[in-house]
Amino acid sequence: MDEEKKSMKRRSFVKGLSAWLLASGAAVQAQAFSGKIPGRDEEDQRYVGQEGKRFGMVVDLRKCVGCQACTGACKVENKTPRHHFRTWVAEYERGEYPAVHKVFLPQLCNHCASPSCVKVCPTGATFSRGDGVVMVDDKVCWGCGYCVNACPYDKRYFHPQSKTVDKCTLCAHRLDSGLLPACVESCVGGARVAGDLNDKKSQVSRLLAGFSTAVLQPSQGNRPQVYYIGLDGSVQNQVRGTVNLDDLARMRDGKPRREWQTAYK
Amino acid sequence: MEIFESLFTISSVTPDRPWGLNIPNYFWFTGSSAAAFIIASFAHVFGIRKYKPVAGFSLLLAFVLLVAAPLNLIDDLRQPGRLFNFFLYGWDHFLTSPMKWGVLLLMAYPLLILFEALLLYRTHFVHKAQEASSALARGFYRLMALGNMRLDEAALQKDEKRGFVLGAIGIPLALSVHGYTGYILGAVQANPLWSTPLMPVLFLASAMVSGAGLLIVLLPIVQRYFSPMQRVDGDMMLALARLLGWFIVIDLVVRFFWLTFAMPFAGDSGYTLVEYFRHHFVGVVYVEYLLCLIVPMIIVFSPLAKRVGWVFLAGLITAVGVWLFRWNTVVGGQGIGRTATGFLEHTPHWFGPDSITAIMANWGAFIAILAIVMLIFPWDREMAEHYQGEHHGKE
Ligand code: SF4
Ligand code: SF4
């Protein structure tokens, strides 16, 4: 009899405990645990972006002279670490003498409408703001590198200090205070134009309406929001050509090998 | 080729890549674990008597491999201290990030093997608990017996039934745990080498090869030096050798389908792959295929398979070969340029996270955990009992 009572008591205790756990679990779930990241839960403007807008860029390649002013401006504005760049202008030579011309390809994160980096991120640290800017929360990222591999445009790298992923934010901090991205502001030829694609009167919208444009690697299905006017077909998809001269020069100068470096045979 | 060669890169940024030695090593461990589990299930679930003597050891091996494997992943994280972020955030990416759901499988699977092993050896732990002199030891063995000290017929039957159910659930789970690692790569559409729905199947097929290979390497060592029999079961080695042979055949067939579709019929990425395989020709064709798959396949299907030494050799080179396949896939695949032209090369460093010594430490941990598990579990006694039975022990 005593035993039975004890066991009854125990059972009701267990029942009570589990009910309590369930209830508190549900409460936590409903309030704090949305499974997203804190910035978005708190609807912090830096995380949700500017309502109703959709930022993008049009690069008019006819105007780009390959001066790398944008590369430098970005480096200064965003204090990117040594050897790492959020944007740069790749330079190619096309054809064989005497039929040659140069191709400049300014490139940055495309702030894709269907970003493969966001899809694969297991912590939610990489996300798209409501206005289309793709961001990384460096307080949340655990540094697995999945997004670095998933971006078809090689626009992500590990920041050696924060040990998290870093990339172009389209200068969201500047956009949010009504300024233009540093690369746009510094572009000497006016080749880079950024703005709201939803606003039909914005300069980006008018360029898109008035010219035929193309995006990089359209077959990846990422729907990039950086558009190019006058894009050379030879660099639109995965580029195939001679290896990077920078790395060949490193080899010639007998510099130590980097962890990842262009292979030469 | 001429059309490609008329584009000269003057300057571009050489990108970094995130995954080094850790990841192929992790893939190799989970894959071999899945295979060891399947081989154990041949006896436990499908009731194939031939594999009974190795089933217990194989199950424990599967467990240990899967305990050691995730250490690679933690080492690979640039922010390992943020492990908890995985559980707190990012659930809205559940369906699109194989890493998200994969980690859940990765946690469930070793637990399942552990419970299956504890059920399998429960009788032993009950006896141990009864014999134990100190309270601590008694408590430990009681825990290992899952708190159930009954040894009557009904209780044993229940164990068997539960073990069968766990084993049966374990088979799809083992396949998914390794399948998801292939899924992780297959889902990266930006990488022409990885992006194929065949990737999980390819990974599973080669995993069976490496798992059988590993078992063939370990079995003679443990039988000869750590079991009461003190000798190697040649019949079992022959059976495992033939099994390895069929796994290699399946692996080659899957790879045949992969390569014959991925190169000529895959649109733009096909050209990249042709260049890729041209670039890695010696490593892939001569080493990975010829030396590490075809040669062992010939050994295990020939009369040489009756010689333990030859089987051991075949097992060893297939296990190494599959490791190379993982390396070539993970590291070689990342070497394919997207914004940079040509191929990148990876030079692993010696010290620090994701380094050569880190991998060696992981192997050290694997061997240490295996030794502990082999000490606690009576796999040797169980193995010896099978040899006293009617089917084995005579030559
Ligand atoms: S360019 Fe790369 S990093 Fe930027 S949004 Fe697209 S996939 Fe993500
Ligand atoms: S490295 Fe960071 S941002 Fe990238 S997928 Fe992993 S957790 Fe997400």
Automatic annotation (TrEMBL), chain A:
Mind telling me which Pfam families this protein's record contains? Fer4_11
Q: What residue stretch is flagged as signal peptide?
A: 1-32
Please provide the record's keywords in A-Z order.
4Fe-4S, Iron, Iron-sulfur, Metal-binding, Signal
Q: Enumerate the GO terms in the molecular function aspect.
A: 4 iron, 4 sulfur cluster binding; metal ion binding
Q: Which InterPro entries does UniProt cross-reference here?
A: 4Fe4S_Fe-S-bd, 4Fe4S_Fe_S_CS, DsrO-like, ET_IronSulfur_Cluster-Binding, TAT_signal
Tell me the ranges covered by the 4Fe-4S ferredoxin-type domain, including all copies. Answer: 55-84, 100-131, 132-161
Q: According to the lineage, what is the superkingdom?
A: Bacteria
Asked if Iron is a keyword of the record, the answer is yes
**UniProt cross-references to PANTHER family, sorted A to Z:** PROTEIN NRFC
Q: What is this protein called?
A: Tetrathionate reductase subunit B
> Which species is this UniProt entry from?
Desulfurispira natronophila
UniProtKB/TrEMBL annotation, chain B:
Where would you find this protein in the cell? Cell membrane
Its placement in the membrane is given as: Multi-pass membrane protein
Q: Keywords assigned by UniProt?
A: Cell membrane, Membrane, Transmembrane, Transmembrane helix
* Listed InterPro entries: Electron_transfer_protein (IPR052049), NrfD-like (IPR005614)
One Pfam family it belongs to: NrfD
Gene Ontology CC: plasma membrane
Q: Where are the transmembrane segments?
A: 26-47, 54-74, 101-121, 164-186, 198-222, 243-261, 281-301, 308-325, 356-377
Where mainly found? membrane
Which PANTHER family does this entry report, sorted A to Z? Answer: PROTEIN NRFD
Q: What's the family? A: Belongs to the NrfD family.
State the protein's name. Answer: Tetrathionate reductase subunit C
Q: Which organism is it from?
A: Desulfurispira natronophila
Q: What is the lineage of its organism?
A: Bacteria, Pseudomonadati, Chrysiogenota, Chrysiogenia, Chrysiogenales
